[in-house]
Amino acid sequence: MKVALVHDYIKEYGGAERVLRVLTDLFPKAPIYTAFFVKDSVACKEFSDRKIIESKWGWLIKYWNLYSPLRFLLPSIWRSIDLSEYDLVVTSCSGYLARGFKKGAKTKVIAYCHTPPKFLYGYQTSIDWQKYWPIRVYGTIINHFIRIFDFESAEEVDFWIANSDNVKERIKKFYRKDAEVVYPPIDVKEIFAASENVTKEDYFFIASRLVGGKGLKEAAEAISKLGLRLKIAGEAAGYAKVKKELESIKDNRIELLGRVSDKELYSLYAKARGFIALEKDVDFGMTPVEAMAAGTPTIALDSGGYKETVVDGETGILIKDREKETIRKAIERFNRIKWDKKRLQDNAKKFSKERFKTEMRRFVEERIYADK
């Protein structure tokens, strides 16, 4: 069986790219088709052992972050990719669609959906594109046509997989399609090993790209006001100004670490008192699970996928909003609870990489190979 993988674009290395990395392990001979890839990016280096094929528009949209303002090209970008020679296409799709490519009469398409594009359906995004009226007018017009293409390309998918119950509901709402939930792969074994014999230190931790919509500024301001330490691992992306906002707090107890290696990341998780995750309407949210695997509880916004991973009072604390007073009360409650590392790690096992591979293999065998 001839298989191809599809992904939005290869630039940053976040949760979606970690899923793609495991998909390449499941389909080692499959090339990766994408809208564009940035050659010297962290993500491209992670996939240096795989064949990456970008769209004919890649030469234009990869530079100066043009892929964002030139979203009106999305139908042309994906229609330019011909996958009709493949028996199976597995697309890892989210904000840049990764659907609508040409396929053969017998080609089957499985969509592993991280989320329908948030900018199309009123969800908060990493950039507040509605802030300036010319961009708001421009976006409102082109988004109408992209929504049409998004729905039409969704009709071309044979089988849907959602990364959470939260995203499953979005798929049903916006595409009128049923989906099976397969939670993303977390490398819990490696994190378990990294957290052995680790002594806790007196800081809270956040792992996130420095973009809008993540609640980073709110968390940093609240922690600063309380006189506590906060470490943030992650790099800036796109047009976001979050890094400058965080630097403007001017508190040497707030440390911006930039991008760190997985080894450093797992150590930071393990040594932290607690992890903080305040993204609104998060699709799934891999970082609280990684924190659990390291034996570290999470203070998370009671929203989106966090509600599926964080068990209030057992593996973390769920809060209703990002207000400073709410965060202060959450930390007070956090300090009163005696956290059980084993319980945290047992919960993390439900989201392991091995479980993901088993469920994906079963899905493909039942839906695809059974018909061959």
UniProtKB/TrEMBL annotation:
Pfam families: Glycos_transf_1. InterPro entries: Glyco_trans_1, Glycosyltransferase_grp1. Gene3D superfamilies: Glycogen Phosphorylase B. GO terms for molecular function: glycosyltransferase activity. It comes from the Bacteria. Residues 189-350 form the Glycosyl transferase family domain. This is Glycosyl transferase family 1 domain-containing protein. It comes from Candidatus Woesebacteria bacterium RIFOXYA1_FULL_40_18.
